[in-house]
Specification:
CATH topology of the largest domain: D-amino Acid Aminotransferase, Chain A, domain 1
Strand content: 15-25%
Radius of gyration: 23 Å
Shape: globular
Oligomer: single chain
CATH class of the largest domain: Alpha Beta
Structural class: alpha+beta
Distance between the termini: 50 Å
Number of domains: 3
Number of strands: 20
Largest sheet: 10 strands, antiparallel
Length: 513
């Protein structure tokens, strides 16, 4: 009989919090392995749970398959002494695993496979994976059995909540993520406060709002601070990918009644949203109102960083985000690296923000979204920070893919990523490649298309295409891809060539995304 975990499944939040603080200092012991700076034996437990607001998560087609995005963390198996325990809600198709194994240059697939423990909750319900694991004591024990040495192990998650903290405690290993008690620092309201503390510019606006009346008053006060303002953005504190943002257009005559009427015509980032549902979520999680910057040539770059257990702020990457939806509020994809004219500037601002977060005790990955624009074509470039994401995001897995394939590293002086051969690398990536004509494609079909059209990543040229979210394609007609090239132009050309190939191979339908 499998023994029970060392702590009761129903341990109190107070007990979990105390034990969590005892375990977290052990993250320092595996830091070099975590950064892939040595080849010491260790175990990486990956639970790719999107433990987010379920009403917001329902907007994301194929959300359950987003657990596949972190399969790029099989990069850990490049260390021949490392082990990975990877847990999912539903089984991962064997061909998808084969696809990743054959990309591990220099490591026999059989050797990597022997060091991978793949576990599954066999639960397709629309809840977070962590919830499902916590309901299954024997699954928790199977995860523990996959950990060779708890003193050389850590838990990696998509985002940290009290549920992930509880799981780390039950497994007896530190959490490679921010303390859930610090989650407020990554809300829309918390982000604005951190930006001010760091001395980084941010849009004019108001935070810590809790009701429809608060929104109305903030919109009126914002118009007083910004005479002639045409638009504002209302944002839910805990939304993601811009899908909790809504665009407000000011009426010509500014009265409370006119503002209230205009608020009912607010433009949501997703078409199925309603005023009553949005207000209910706003009252539940709170949010902000801030000016919509109307400048010319606007772009939305982001910076990704990591804070070590020692409190060091380490830049990881910069990206230009590709946005869509009303007012360009929804994240669709990204281009790496961010443009040269502001790449180092946003990195420097992000480091200042990271240094403030470090004083609060934040550890692990996070990202910061910015806006850059010019008030006139010949004006100086302006910059404002928009939000902090204390979690992995849409730019995390493409960068992991780049590391996975090349084994290269970021040059902090330039913000460029160089492969071991000395080539600067570029990519364009998306999670949102959707078409009704893709529905019914099996993982085998996707890999056939990729191989027959010679889009596969080539280690000899350091360029090619890597698919993810392959499990979502048959049911949802949805794929993710990262197109890697030796210049921005080459990466873009590969990206569009892939779209052409997919459209041609599924010619009876039209691409929708």
């Amino acid at each position: 009989m499998i023994p029970q975990p060392p702590f009761p499944i129903d341990l109190t939040p107070e007990t979990a919090s105390a034990e969590f603080r005892r375990l977290q200092p052990h993250l320092l012991e595996v830091w070099n392995a975590l950064m892939m700076a040595d080849e010491a034996p260790h175990t990486s437990v990956v639970v790719p749970s999107m433990t987010l607001d379920q009403s917001e998560l329902k907007k994301l087609a194929g959300a359950s398959f987003y657990e596949e995005r972190l399969l790029f963390l099989l990069i850990r198996l490049r260390n021949p002494r490392a082990r990975v325990v990877y847990v999912t809600s539903q089984p991962v198709h064997p061909m998808i695993l084969d696809y990743y194994f054959q990309l591990l240059a220099g490591i026999p697939a059989s050797h990597a496979r022997a060091r991978l423990t793949l576990l599954c909750a066999y639960d397709a319900s629309p809840r977070s994976l962590t919830e499902k694991i916590l309901e299954r004591p024997r699954l928790i024990e199977r995860i523990r059995e996959g950990i060779q040495d708890p003193s050389r192990a850590y838990l990696t998650v998509f985002n940290s909540t009290p549920l992930e903290r509880k799981l780390a405690v039950l497994l007896g290993i530190p959490l490679n993520g921010a303390d859930p008690d610090l989650a407020h620092l990554g809300t829309k309201s918390g982000s604005r406060k951190i930006f001010r503390e760091a001395g980084v510019a941010l849009p004019e606006g108001f935070e810590d709002l809790q009701s429809q009346r608060d929104i109305e008053e903030a919109l009126i006060d914002l118009a007083a601070k910004r005479p002639g303002i045409r638009r504002a953005v209302v944002k839910l504190n805990d939304s993601f990918s811009g899908e909790g943002n809504a665009l407000f257009r000011y009426p010509e005559i500014l009265t409370r009644e006119r503002v209230r009427e205009a608020l009912r015509r607010i433009e949501y980032s997703v078409p199925e949203e309603t005023f009553d549902a949005y207000c209910e979520k706003f009252c539940r999680m709170g949010g902000i109102v801030e000016e919509f910057i109307e400048g010319a040539g606007k772009l939305s770059p982001s910076a990704q960083l990591r804070i070590s257990p020692r409190g060091e702020v380490l830049p990881i990457s910069t990206h230009d985000q590709i946005l869509g939806g009303p007012g360009d509020q929804v994240f669709l994809g990204c281009s790496f690296p961010a443009r040269e004219e502001y790449r180092l500037r946003i990195s420097e601002a992000a480091i200042r923000i990271g240094e403030v977060l470090a004083t609060y005790g934040v550890v692990s990955r996070f990202a910061i979204d910015f806006l850059v624009w010019r008030d006139a074509p010949d004006a100086e470039l302006s910059l404002a920070a928009l939000e902090i994401n204390l979690r992995m995001g849409g730019t995390t897995h493409p960068f992991l893919a780049l590391q996975f394939l090349t084994g290269g590293k970021l040059d902090r002086a330039t913000g460029l990523f160089y492969s071991p051969t000395g080539l600067a690398k570029y990519y364009r990536a998306t999670d949102n490649l959707r078409s009704d004509s893709y529905r019914g494609l099996l993982p085998e079909d996707v890999i056939d298309i990729l191989t027959e059209n010679r889009l596969h990543y080539s280690h000899s040229t350091d360029s090619g295409v890597l698919f993810h979210l392959i499990g979502a394609v048959s049911e949802f007609g949805k794929l993710g891809l990262t197109a890697i090239g030796n210049s921005r132009e080459e990466a873009d050309a590969l990206y569009y060539k892939t779209l052409e190939v997919l459209d041609r191979e599924t010619a009876y339908g039209r691409r929708a995304g």
